[in-house]
Design a protein that fits this description.
The chain has 8 helices and 3 strands, in the order αβααββααααα. The chain is mainly α.
Length: 163
């Protein structure tokens, strides 16, 4: 089965249709979140998705019952293959490296799903330096500053004794 590309609006409708699997136009109108599209808009998208092979129709009296033909999992595979071909030179390795680098998948996820011994070296990440915070939390007093502070304390004590 050949899968065709969907526009963003068509994908949004299909997300709802995948949940319902089989439905009537009135079901779509009831289930669609706010703001609800006009009924004619929904009808147009249903017609387009039937033409693209994502939905089938069966006439029941005066109304049509729609059924999803392309399962969500098949569409996901299609999109991933397209992405791989268009942006990763059909390299699953490049996709996996990106997923790991962007922390969209962890080494633990990998170990849990694959019976492979994968050892992934973490990339070197420099620890952020918080110089100002360190100065505030643990200030370093140089000798000159310490001497001035001691002199100020002596002056305060002398003033108290005089009073």
């Amino acid at each position: 089965m050949k899968i065709n590309h969907l526009t963003a609006a068509e994908e949004n409708f299909m997300k709802l249709f995948w949940k319902m699997e089989s439905f009537y136009l009135k079901d779509v109108m009831e289930q669609h979140p706010e703001p609800k599209p006009h009924q004619n808009t929904v009808s147009t998208y249903l017609k387009i998705l039937v033409e693209k092979g994502y939905l089938s129709t069966v006439k029941e009296g005066r109304i049509f019952k729609y059924t999803v033909l392309v399962p969500l999992e098949e569409y996901k595979k299609f999109l991933l293959k397209e992405l791989s071909h268009q942006f990763f030179s059909d390299s699953g390795k490049e996709i996996l490296e990106l997923l790991l680098t962007e922390k969209l998948i962890s080494q633990e996820d990998m170990k849990g799903h694959f019976d492979l011994k994968i050892e992934i070296k973490p990339s070197k990440i420099e620890e952020p330096k918080f110089e100002f915070a360190e100065e505030i939390l643990s200030p370093r007093k140089d000798k000159k500053t310490k001497g001035k502070e001691k002199d100020k304390e002596k002056d305060k004590k002398k003033k108290k004794k005089k009073d």
